[in-house]
Amino acid sequence: MSEAAPAKPKDGLSFIHSSLDDAGLAPAEFRIYCHVNRVAGRHGVCTQALTTIANHCGYCEDVTRTALKSLTARRLLRRRDIKGIGTEYRLNVPEKWRKVHIPLRKKRSGKKSQRSPVKKSKPHPSEKILGKGIPSEGIPSEGSNSKSHSLERDDPTRENKLMTLAVEVLGKGVMAKWGGVWRNRARENANKLERVLNAVREDQNCGKKPRKDWGAYANDTWGRFAN
Q1: Beta-bridge mates of residue 82
Q2: Residue 98: which residues within 8 A CB-CB, separation 6 or more?
Q3: CA–CA separation, 209 and 191 (whole Å)
Q4: Fewer beta carbons within 10 angstroms: which end of the chain, N or C?
Q5: Residue 131 located in a structural domain
Q6: Residue 197 belongs to what domain range?
Q7: Residues of the chain with pLDDT under 50
Q8: What element of type H or E holds 187?
Q9: 162 and 88, same domain (yes or no)
C-alpha cells in the first residue's frame, strides 16, 4: 500500500479581506495599516513608535503621521496615549469602521462630440483671490506641459475646495503669486496636495515657529512627500 502524497502548500501567503480592499484607503494609509495590523498580532495592539513605523514602511514621518491620523478618524484604528510610555494603536473590527463614499471616475470617450456653448459661470471665491494673470481652468502655468491638462476636470468641486484650503493655509499673498502652480498640482495629484496642506496646517496648529513664507515650506513638504 503506497503512502499518500504530502499536501502541497497553497499558493499565496497573504489574505486581504474585502472590507479592507473596499475601504478606499490611500496607498500610504493602506501600507501603514497593513504594517500596524501585522505588528498588532493576536492581541490587536501596536506599540511601535512613529519613527519605527515610518522607517519600516518607507515613508517620511509627516506622511506616516497623516496616514495614522486618517486611519484613526475613520475608526480603523483606536489611538491611546500612555504617559511615560508612548502611543499605542488598537485594531477595530470592520463593523466599526466609518464608511466613506468613493466616487467612480467617469470614462472619457475618444470620440469628439458636438456640444452646445457653455455659459460662463461666476468664478469661485478662491479664483478671485488668486488675482489677474493666474491660470484658470485648462490653462497651464509657465513651464508646464499644455498637453497634460484638459478643459474637462475629473472633480472641479474638489479642486476648488483644495484651492480654498490652500488660501487658508498658505495665505492670500502666496496664492496671489503662486496660485497657478498649486492649482496645477491639484489637477495632477489632488490626494497628495490634500495631504501636504493638512500636514502644513497641522504644523501651524502645533505651535511651530511662524514662518515668513509658508508657501516655501509647503513646497519643500511637497518634494518630501511620496505620490
Answers
A1: 86
A2: 73, 74, 75
A3: 26
A4: N
A5: yes
A6: 125-140+153-224
A7: 1, 126-153
A8: helix 172-188
A9: no
